[in-house]
Write a structure and sequence with these properties.
Blueprint: H1 2-13, H2 21-48, H3 53-71, H4 77-89, H5 96-122, H6 132-152, H7 160-168
Length: 176
Amino acid sequence: MQQFLTWVEQKSKFIEARYKPAAVRAFYLSLDLNLSRTLSRTLSRTRTLPFSLDLSRTRTLFLSRTLDLSLDQDLSPELKRSLQQLKDQLPNPEDEEAYEQWWQKNGQAWTKQLRAVMIEHRNIGHDWQFTDTQKELLKQYYDANKLLVDCLNSDCYVSREVRQEIEDTLLLPVKQ
């Protein structure tokens, strides 16, 4: 968990934004946990659930459109190339039966490739493999930090120095 919080801190330092550092850390904490959960769910479904043809087609269209949108962004040539290669692997969504067969055979490996591209080019999407207890602790930690922010934004009085110290140390690993 400390490695994850260290990653959140490091990732947030690369962002040049008008937002407070704690807000950027909160964004990355939430984003990476949700992204990891989504990718993990996709991986587990490829191993355990039979797909309906409609779900398969919807997934292909979603992935294809998402990759199209990503390719339209201002990305490095290497990242664009990697995303295009992944997109090119997707079967034609109109051929539902072929797609279902492709996904059953290739879906897990394709999802792992997507995760590897995200990690390599954007350092996001890591599989932190948190236990349920660790996930609950992270949620409690996040909620406690949110409570501090809510208190700071209420009518309570704290000096500017104390307020700044609290804001500067929100969502940091213990060593910080």
